[in-house]
Amino acid sequence: MTIKIRYFASLRERLGRSEDTVDFYEALTVSDVWYRANADQPLPVNVLASVNMDYVALDSVVQDDDEVAFFPPVTGG
Length: 77
What we know:
Layout: E1 2-7, H1 10-15, E2 19-23, E3 28-29, H2 30-37, E4 48-51, E5 54-56, E6 61-62, E7 67-71
Parallel strand pairs: 1-7
Antiparallel strand pairs: 1-2, 3-6, 4-5, 4-7
């Protein structure tokens, strides 16, 4: 099974890429997906995540062919 991962804004710049894919064979949460793709990078504090364009909690379980996206916290002014 495969998950597509997208990174936005400062996360994209920090990681040096905008997308990844992760193959898996067992249930994964959104935070598991981050660590599969970024084993050497801690999950940023207050990061926002979505699955198939719907915001979700980091403990949400992903399914085959889902798209998981990570966003830095958004502030306005």
